[in-house]
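tmp note - ATPase
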Amino acid sequence: MAHIIVVGNEKGGAGKSTMSVHIATALARGGHKVGVLDLDLRQKTFGRYTENRRKFLESSGLELAGPEYHELPEIDSSELAAGENIYDHRLSAAVAQLEPDCDFILIDCPGSHTRLSQVAHSLADTLVTPLNDSFVDFDLLAHIDSDGEKILGPSVYSEMVWNARQLRAKAGLKPIDWVVMRNRMGAQAMVNKEKMGKALDRLAKRIGFRVAPGFNERVVFRELFPRGLTLLDLRDVGVKQLNISNVAARQELRDLMKSLELPGVEVNF
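out:
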């Protein structure tokens, strides 16, 4: 059975697609067969990233390891029974097609609540939730008092993950390993940063996730998109000397991959 990684967060701009591309490419470069689904059927950022990569490699005459991107298959609605959801069938058909040949299936979810995203979360063996280091984003996980100290209760996204966990338990599947990644953390020791860390640690114990560092804000991520490249591809495309920011970004990716604790994965880049 392929190990399913879902990258999800119902808020846009958290870095889901950037993180998805780097996780999937790191796994592929490590020798694993990786299939990818993009559930943002309108924007398809991961799909655009893959297309940019294909065109750049073709024009450059390069061959670089990478994940295989797949569109959701079309389903004939006339074949559905009364009350069945066509999106459920499109996602389950896609996963069924990929599982026999893949070590990992990565599903990149949209930054909003959709039926597809909801079903995808129930399929997750590993759930990765990028979270900007801000109480605005924290509010998606839990409501907190005006001092940023006391957690008042879970919010909409946490409740959705809880429902996904319940569905998996009823189906006899192993629990979701939920990892919340703190993205865009400032380098300075700010009071807000410290409060965020403490609040996340308290919430992690309460609703059951692991906290790990994600990516800092770096220009390189935006620069790589038009060519469909990742940090791991830079030397292969002729960058002989990485600058300090790129070296630090590679270390962040290394730490991220280690923190995911994916089965059979050795982080050696």
